[in-house]
Amino acid sequence: MLRSRWAGALAAVAVMGIAGCGPGRPPGAAPSSGPGASTPVRSVSSSSAPGQTSAGPAAGTPVGPVPAGFAATSVTWVSPEEAFVLGTAPCAHAPCTAVLRTLNRGTSWVGLPGPAEAVGAAGLEGGAPVLWGIRFATPQHGFAFGGGVWETTDGGQRWVRDFVPAGSFLSLAIAGGQVLALNALCAPGGGCKEGSLLRRPLSGGVWTAVSRATVPGLLDPGDLIATQAGVAAVLDGRDVLVTRDGGLSVTVHPIPCPSLDQAPSVAVTSATGLAILCTGEGYTGHTIKQVYLSDDDGGHWALAGAPSPDGDAGTLAATTTGQLAIATESAASWLFYCGSAGARWQIVNQQDDGGAGWADLGFTTAADGVVVYGPADSDGNATQRPGQLFLTSDAGATWYRVSF
Q1: SS3 track for the chain
Q2: Would the N or C end of the chain have less CB density within 10 A of its end CB?
């Protein structure tokens, strides 16, 4: 898909109250950031806090300063306040990978050691493998993934490369006491194919194949496993796979997308609910977008609305109270928002950047959400991408940038 990664590991939404979301920006509305913004992006002043400690399991973990010029690649949350960010910064000796942690929702940050592997773009590994994602199950136990998988059980102080099947780990999530991963064979410059959904007990063990799974034809397919409340969903062509036990058993239902010109995005919305974004009929940086909802694992679908055609394929995320958000890009980068109870779709954040894109769009509470803007995709951020973290405290209606 695009530069934006298909976030789902944090996405959650209630099915009720979404139907009726209409297309386009309301008359007179303006983006909340970028040129012509009616509400400027709020930059949270933050600093490295070398003495920061946690009251949780990660208490006492040694920390250091935030590397100068740090740019984010991926983010993961273990509570509404605590997050880990994978990224990179200019350094004298490669790889320049670093991990940051916050215990106060981005007000301050500390630096942690990163895995001994450079960050990069998914599916573009040439020689050495690269990383593009991070997910933590607890403040102590986490994973960094990409051309392989690295694991930490001490809050990011030590990272060990796991023994894993060959291929690229495009997406990884924890659900039902299992680690789920979408693995595929990727050729440098040629995209990824032959995807498989794998599982492994969180406590350790061998990786086992769960099912075949589709990966987008374009490079950087990103996060393709949607999770919420122990439920996980993965797309396989014209079907959606749903599991409630971490892949030990799977149900399969067809998706409603009229075409698969561009890869759809799925989100788990409740214990039995799903939402899906279908895109197709692309024209000059636009695609026809439709959102469908299901309350029976995809057995039946209802059309919820048609967002703006701006942008190519996108990432769908939602809250537990009915708001929807979409991240998309082409000539620019956009965040869309749809309120509950029939509110119209709006473009709430526009970056006129040539399509830097997004990663890890999702929500940690009914109101709090996160997205990485312009994820870093090179060691030391040699490509000079933004690598910024944006947060929302009103379910996606407005977004503000957090400083590292």
Answers
A1: CCCCCCCCCCCCCCCCCCCCECCCCCCCCCCCCCCCCCCCCCCECCCECCCCCCCCCCCCCCCECCCCCCEEEEEEECCCCCEEEEEECCCCCCCCEEEEEECCCCCCEEEEECCCCCECCCCCCCCCCCEEEEEECCCCCEEEEECCEEEECCCCCCCEECCCCCCEEEEEEEECCEEEEEEEEEECCCEEEEEEEEEEECCCCCCEEEEECCCCCCCCCCCCEEEECCEEEEEECCEEEEECCCCCCCEEEECCCCCCCEEEEEEECCCCCEEEEEEEEEECCEEEEEEEEECCCCCCCEEEECCCCECCCEEEEECCCCCEEEEEECCCEEEEEECCCCCCEEEEEEECCCCCCEEEEEECCCCCEEEEECCCCCHHHCCCCCCEEEEECCCCCCCEEECC
A2: C
